[in-house]
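The methods section describes the discrete structure representation at length, but only in general terms. What matters is that the chain and its backbone geometry are given together, residue for residue. Nothing conveys this as quickly as seeing an actual entry. For illustration, here is how one protein appears when written out as sequence plus structure tokens:
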Amino acid sequence: MNMNKESKFSAPELTGEPDWEELVIPDNFGLGRQFITGDIMTDRIRLKYFKREHDNALMARIWFGPAAEGPIGHVHGGSMAALLDESMGLAVLLTGSMAFTAKLTVKYRKMLPLGSVVTLEAKIKNVSNRKILTFGTIYNEKGEVISKAEGLFIKPQVNKMEEHNIEIKTMGK
């Protein structure tokens, strides 16, 4: 393996923008580790979550390593879908509600090369009783949309956040 490939597949430091506050996401809400956030493999996906100050959007910086490969040399679409799902669910958690994915629609716009660092944005679009409509976008360093999703989340009859003592904190708070 040449030096260029080695540096491409070493997880870089992931940082936010000046108006982003880093979030501390528990890697375990129940019996096991969270599917994405709780992953401790160093060569698949690395990410940091943030809350954007001006609109409270959930933001993430994500690096995709070689174990996230789908098509040769590119990121597996399922890994992007899982990140969009988790991030949109976390955007719901930031509002103080817990909800479960009822429907997830992902549209892929461009192939993403392995070793890429991308930005993910997730927001709440609409809330109607127990239904929460969300959307999320993954875009590259040029601002080009790689994939985007819309999700329908349903709040349970009772607030499960209190039952499981789930809390998302910002760094330093």
The longest strand covers residues 117-128. The domain at 3-170 is CATH 3.10.129.10 (Thiol Ester Dehydrase; Chain A).
